Amino acid sequence: MALLTPQDLENLSTQLEENDEIIKRVTGLDIRGICEDLYGTKPDSQKVGIIPITSGNGIISTFTSSLLFIVEYFGFEGFVTEHPDVTGYYEAVSQGADIIMMADDHIFTAHNLRNEKIVSNHVATGVIYADIASRFTEANSKDILVIGLGRVGYAGASHLMKKGFNVYACDPNREFLQKAVGELGIKPYCSDDRKKFSMVFEATPNADTISEGMIEERCLVSTPGIPCGLPPEIGKKYRVDLVMEPLVIGVASMLYSVLQNGNS
Ligand code: PYL
Ligand code: MG
To answer: Which atom of ligand 1 is nearest to the CA of 226?
Structure first.
């Protein structure tokens, strides 16, 4: 999995505001509204212990401080532990954390100690970016294109199938594609199908995965990016609305997904 860099996390507050405005304009809801609707939960100042983890490539200098900003923005009470790793875990639980957040190079998780709910950033990110794409108010059908069927794309495609969308998907890895066709019932898509979409959820670690033949005149592309799959010239030519930021939306989804909701 591609690792975030401090450059990716610069101006996170500006990226959040800009994306929240776009999301509100194209779906009618802001990020909070989408999370509440998606999970049926609302933050209530739960204590979130954020633990730096030194394994693998080690600490990303602004990662835990970015998480603290996000956690507090959405109405939780956050703290970053003084120590990393096991000592940090002990510290967080001892200080009364309701939710633990920590990431090594493979999994970034949120774990609610009070209700045992646990989620990975892959799943939470795939679900919310796919959900945002599916809420495009100018869409004129339930057809939606998913590009990339790795851990993020698969989670998003699964969510869209459950919501009753006509999910078309592609992935250069034939095994990933066959798995999603067999397990989820998605329709395989290739760009020479000439079918165009007004809603696209892109979840690949590559640039320029979206080509002209795929998108309608008005189109919403929703992606966790890094890099962006939409070539800028196509974005301009087709007046594409692009929802893309590196961490905030995925973390909001993680937090709301582990809260207790009324019917669970
Ligand atoms: C969660 C991000 C989204 C994309 N890639 C994921 C990533 O960069 N994971 C690695 C996070 C490592 C954090 C480091 C620290 O500072 O605690 N262990
Ligand atoms: Mg994100």
So the answer is: 4
**DSSP-derived 3-state class of residue 124:** helix
Instruction: Give yes or no for residue 193 having a pLDDT over 90.
Output: no
- Which pLDDT does position 124 carry in this prediction? 98
d(Cα 177, Cα 58) in Å, to the nearest integer? 33
Is the pTM for the entire model greater than 0.70?
Answer: yes
CA distances from 253 to 11, 155, 256 (A): 20, 13, 5
For residue 122, the ligand closest to its alpha carbon is 1
Residues in contact with ligand 1 (CB, 6 Å cut-off): 1-4, 52-53, 59-60, 63-64, 103-105, 108, 121
Q: What tens digit of pLDDT does each residue of 99-123 get?
A: 999 999 999 999 999 999 999 999 9
Question: Cα 133 to the chain's mean position, in Å?
Answer: 11
Q: Which ligand lies nearest to the CA atom of residue 124 in the structure?
A: 2
Ligand 1, closest atom to CA 59? Answer: 16
Query: How many CB atoms are closer than 10 A to CB 170?
Result: 23
Number of domains in the chain: 2
User: What are the tokens at 53?
Assistant: 């983890």
User: Which ligand is closest to the CA of 244, given by its number?
Assistant: 2
Same domain, 54 and 165: no
CATH number, position 44? 3.40.50.12150
The pLDDT value given to residue 174? 95
Q: Please give the number of the atom of ligand 1 that sits closest to the Cα of 108.
A: 1
